[in-house]
Amino acid sequence: MTYRSLRYPRLTAVAAVAALVVVAGCADSKRDTGSGSGGTGASGGTFVFAGSADPVTLDPFFASDGESFRPARQIFEGLVGTKPGTADPAPLLATSWQTAQDGLSTTFELQSGVKFQDGTDFNADAACWNFDRWYNTPPGIGQTEDQSYYWISLFKGFAKGDLTDSVYKSCTVDGDNKITVALTQPFAGFVAALSLPSFSMQSPTAIKKWGATGQDDPSQSEYATAHPTGTGPFVFQSWDKGNQITLTRNENYWGEKALVDEVRIVPIAEPKARADALLNGEIDGFDLVGPADISRLQDAGFQIANRPAFNILYLGINQAVKPLDDIRVRQAIAYAIDKEAVINASMPEGTKPALEFVPDSVNGYTPDVKTYDYDPAKAKDLLAQAGAQNLTIQFNYPTDVTRPYMPSPGDTFNAIRSELEAVGINVKPQADRWDPDYLDRIQGGKDHGIHLLGWTGDYNDTDNFLGVFFGRKSNEWGFENQKLFDALTKARGIPVVSDQTPVYQKINQQVMDFLPGIPIASPVPSLAFDPKVKGYVPSPVQDEPWNLVSVQ
Amino acid sequence: MLRFIVRRLALMIPVLVGLSILLFVWVRALPGDPARAMLGERATPEAIDQINKIYGFKEPVFGQYFTYVGRLLHGDFGASTRDGRSVVSTFFEQFPATIELAVAALLFAVALGIPLGFWAGRRIGGWVDNLVVSGSLLGVVTPVFFLAILLKLVFADWLGWLPTSRRQDARIEATHVTNFYVLDGVITREWDASWDAIVHLILPAVALGTIPLAIIVRITRASVAEVMSEDYVRTAVSKGLPPQIVSRRHILRNAMLPVITTIGLWTGLLLSGAVLTESVFEWNGIGRYLFLAIGQRDYPVLQGYILFIALIYSLVNLAVDVSYGVIDPRVRVS
Description:
The structure holds 2 protein chains of 2 kinds. Chain A contains 17 helices and 21 strands. Chain A is α+β, with helices and mostly antiparallel strands. Chain A has a 7-stranded mixed beta sheet, with helices on both faces. A 6-stranded mixed beta sheet of chain A has the order 16-20-15-19-17-18.
């Protein structure tokens, strides 16, 4: 057959390929001009920053996740802030405060002449209105820990609903710029807690106009998705969900006005994808740098900034499983682990080994605790004494996750596993997906042996670490130690922080003698920036307002 | 024809009802506690109980189902337990992104696939054919996520020609009217925004379009080869018709039917959300959102999205069946 003569114009395919190449080439030149936009000088320009996910809501009272707090830190301010670069409380919208001797009331002097971004005055009325709003959150979805987590965990209850034993009692206006907040019981962490973004001051006018009514989900109201209004250095502009948030400079800001004209916050889920986007000039900086990307970014001339570590990674031990209830076995595990080696294998440079279950910047930290320095011979001895030479234990670790306290769980697991095997412990690895299988296994049931987990502190409060871990009997630890539970309950009730310090130091010693688990390290969380970015001050509790950031 | 369409639409109702029941049971059979997934590592037993109470996770499944269906009948698909957003509104916000990507991938697959397949099919055993056949085999067997990562590594990370992820540069001033970014730029005359959206489409579209491309090439090739051996083609050639006319009227048109079926099938599949491609390229479409929902046991999103996807898939199939009649009058008669 002679069909070869039946010619079809063969150019189509070639043209298509050529078009693709041309498009790609043009894209290149376009993007080069795109990244260096704007005029000269230190102010002006757009700061594009990538987080790991879209915020859940822009009303920080109903949020507890870092991604929702990120824009909130720019739009809002609380009565109390933090000293830059630390977790310690500092004046912000309140210029000073005085707590009564009995710890039952605190008087705040407020900054005068401050206005919300919608022109509403910030004054004593507005401040008390905010306290009352939190306390009067209607029963329902807004009263779950999924939403008003910080109010529930710190103030315990609301005016109405299932949780009524509120620590908060009332807020009284004592003058234009003076309020007194009364509590029903002493709460030493009260002032420090107010530095959380959840307790930001929000505009009463805007909430009355746009806020949720009735049974509607308050975290998804018009206010919380399109009209968040605070006193901060940036004004909310728009939120293209799943895509980006745009904020612009607050021209009437009472403090130091922002240098950049605009801020855009974008969600990029994978750490490597965030690094790729920075290297390719698509963003100016990002949070939660993967340890594997740090040297790649540094080699290419990008800046890495470390947050002071405010977290703890530990190896948990489940005492419901025999013979882990034997203190000698737990000590053997502790002596078997070379923390420095684990850090070198799986954590960013600058990470320090941990002595106890709180990082060193937390109130009540003491270097004077029983330590378990790496000593494999001693570990073997202790195992022999306990009659556990042929010990086999399940070792649980999560996959598909990085947490600030756990940048690379698989590598941490491998490092610890080989050390345990070196002293003759048989390790039975058990990996689970973080969401939701891992936490289900560790916290929801008894079928686990030793495991990796940790915590990032919210603000400077010891109970926020020790109380969370050891405040009561739990599936995670599987032990009953009434003495420890009681000591923690008592410490929490001490009205003054300075009086808590020695008590918590004692508890830290008590915990390290009891050795419910092995604190491993406080990994330094990293941020990465384009070389042109200046003025970003990392904070251990992510209290990082961007008014001093410049991109020119 | 109208009767046919109405009957097919009516048949979809029992299918969707059955699917909604299966889905409802299936998502609840997944291991993992949604309340714990919502609260993370700070979950206390009290908080978990409270979430279960408010969301009704521990109610009997039948009761939960009837409540759910009752709300569905009012158009209420519920809200995500992960981010609190209404399932219906997020779906319609994200679906344009998925459509845009699917259309770009299909354009890539069809614009390259049909000519290549035609070219190869006309000379079975020639060098072009060998090249096309082996190339398409490679295309079919390469996993999408692998190709996606590879393309990104070469064209974005190493060469820096194309953006690494997302739908549009964060610095571009773009107004989004329809959420079809390319179209939005045209409507608002923000040409850079349109252009930027196209540039962002290239890598994901190529990654997503490669498997359909390979399949379209193979089907076109086989179909063309078969049609060329038909008597009417020989007749047309021997009666002296110009080759272009034989190609267009006699070969291409007759060879297209199986190709249209394949394209229709792939349209349905691509519109169902490209979970892997969207995740690799951080594409804000339904596939990526579904992926996040699975991890968090986000029941309302899983149920709602999969039902929507099933509905869309059925509608696309119906459209394909209807289009046969337009392309090939013989189908209409039978």
